[in-house]
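Collaborator request, handled under Task 6.
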Amino acid sequence: MNRRSGLTRIALALPLALAAPLLVSAPATAGDGDGDEKQQPTYDYGAKVSIELRMEDGTLVKHRGVLRSFGNEWRFEFEGAGHKHTVVLNAESEEGQKTLEVTFAYDRDGTTVMAPYTTTYVARKRQSLWTHDGKIALALTFTPTRFEREDKSRDDKQKVKPDDNDDPLGGPLF
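Structure tokens returned to the collaborator:
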């Protein structure tokens, strides 16, 4: 009789065990809607820039940087040939244009070598400018590029929780 009741239990449990996965649905998540599509990345239009400085003694100092967007002032500080160099650039251009309106200034060791100067540059073409005395040259090459916009939103992990003991306003005031 024990043997028969054991077989009966297996006979009843087997179909239930096979059907159970079909009865349980997967948990729903926030992005499972039919109308939801993945958010497309957004881009800023800027340029990669190659900076070359030719010193009085012929020494060449190179630096590479990026202008992540046009219309903003970008400052590049770097060292080379025993000096600290600072180049400030502001470029204006629209996507698809082959020319850039560039304003730049150059300081070496805190002394202004080239005051702010505005000129037109052709994209992907190396153009140089010499100081009045002909001793120092600054060459710039701009390569227009699309940069994926950085997500600057806060992460949930960085938010202060209401029961956090480190919160200065979380406890009793007196």
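The cover message to the collaborator said: "Residues 35 and 56 are 64 Å apart (CA to CA). The mean pLDDT is 82. Please let us know whether this matches your experimental observations."
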